[in-house]
Every structure is written in C-alpha cells, then in structure tokens.
Amino acid sequence: MFLSLAPVLLLAPMIAAPQASVPVAIDGPIEKLKPGEYLWAPQIAPDGPVTMIVSLKAQRAFVYRNGVPIGVSTISSGMRGHETPTGVFTILQKDVDHTSNLYSGASMPFMQRLTWDGIALHAGALPGYPASHGCVRLPLAFAKLLFTVTKLGLTVVITNDSLVPEVAPAAGMLDHALDDGHTAPTTYRWTPELSAEGPLSIVVSGRDRRLVVLRNGVEIGSAAIRLDEPITQTEAFTLRAIDAGGPHWLRLPLPGQRLSDAGELSAADRARGHLPDGFRVQLETALRPGATLLVTRDSLASSGTGSRISVLQADR
Fold this sequence. Notes:
The protein is mainly beta and 316 residues long. Helices cover 9% and strands 33% of the residues. An eight-stranded mixed sheet has the order 1-2-5-4-3-11-6-21, covered by helices on one side. The chain has a seven-stranded mixed sheet with strand order 12-15-14-13-20-17-18, covered by helices on one side. A four-stranded mixed sheet has the order 7-8-9-10, covered by helices on one side. Strand 3 and strand 4 (60-65) form a beta hairpin. The relative contact order is 0.18.
C-alpha cells in the first residue's frame, strides 16, 4: 500500500475517485495514472511545511504537507542526453508565466526553478516518457495547484530509486549514543552565516560517511558520521515536531514502499548514527519542524543521474 489520500479527487481527467479513507495502492490508481493525470487532496493536511519527491523511474511526483501525502502526479523528466539530475534541491525562483532563456523562448507556465542553469518544475507536455531537456514537466492544472502551496526554499528531492527498504537501519543519525562503547567522529564544519534563514535540508551519504546540512540550498555545515549499519537505499523523512523527547522524524513513503512501513523513527533508530558532539548541538539548535532528511547509500560528490546524489547549491 502506498499513498493515503482520503478523500481523493482525481482532477485530470475527471473519473471516479477512490472512496474516502481507503489507502491508494501503488499497484492501483497511482500506478494506473495516465500521462497528464494526477491526484490532489490538500484538505487532508490543510497546514504545515510542504515537501516534494520526484521519482524518475516511476515518472511520478509526490507532494507532502506536514508529512502527509496530499498529491501525486505523472511527470516527464529529461530525455537521454538531457537527464534530470538527482539530488536535493530547493525552489530558488517562482514565475507564473516564464519563458525559457535557453530554448528559444519556450513557454514554461508555473515555473519553479531548482537550479540557476536551467532545471525547473513547470507545466508542459507529458507524452508518457522522459522527453524534456532536464526539467520536470507537470500537468498544467497540477502545476498551477502546486504553485499555490509552495514557497521559496521548499525542499525538492529528485531520486532515481523506485524502491526503498522495509526498515531504515541508519536513518536516525541526529542522536549520539554515549553508552554503546563506540567513539563518535570529531571532524565537522558549521557556518550558518552563509545562509541565515530558510528551510533546512539534511543529506546523509553512506558511501561518503558524511552528513551535509543545507539551508535554502546553500551548504552551511558538514560532518563525518559513523553508522552502525550500512545504508542500503534512499529514504526521506520530514521533521514533524520537536519536544522534550527530542526530534520526531516521520518517514515519507517513496514509490514502492508499503504504507505499513511508514511511521516515526524510534529511539533505537536514532541511536545508530554518531556525530561529533559539537556539531550535533549546533544542528539541534537550527532544526525546525518541516526540515527534511534524505538518507542515501551513494556519494554526494557525484553528478548526473542514476542512483547517485548531487547536492546542488543555490550559488552555483
């Protein structure tokens, strides 16, 4: 089971909607969406921070508000030779009636820029396969609806993974276990003045053994991290709340994940990653509800597409 949109409205084209409170299965309405179709049910979570995950393999975009799925859409990503880069991005610019500077003034309605070198979300043709020059095309009506719920700095994760593991063995790396007999790393960098305000995104690479913190797309910190168990797949989380019990990270279901696998990270999960004490304290002071955590087995230093992740910054 995958996306629980209840009640759900299928807006383009209009066909019978699933019944209220019935989870939408990945092998049901979502998988069967035809090019140009989408699901949109913002009333499920009227308020809260918005996060978007784009799956290149599934050719779907998933929208969450306050950790709750409120929409899914078919997309068309970059064609061969113009592949859409994977990674963690933030919305840098919004324009209702944008025209391309790179492709002969091509119309890009409801454009939301992800990089300064031409990658964006926008309305466009959806033939049912990757056909763009790198942008993520959306149905026109969905692009318009999405435009109304997003803000500058919002986190957009683009991944080529179509499946995620059933458990997240190393996802709770924001806690430091003092009594497990291991030594935490000591090297880190923390420069929050590079981007003083805005949404926070945290990316953890199992291959690099490194955690990177971005605010408004600008890297403000990084640290070595020791993981008790290897990271096996890409997973995404949103910070729902912070209280006396610590941060409450909610898993965002990705394509192929069962609804039963969703839920909050446990204290045991959070104790499986180890950060420098000084860095952990600084990071905890910067955390706010709505922060996004992406965990990947791949390297942060790579670029291009595939399962590798590129952390693209706003000043590049």
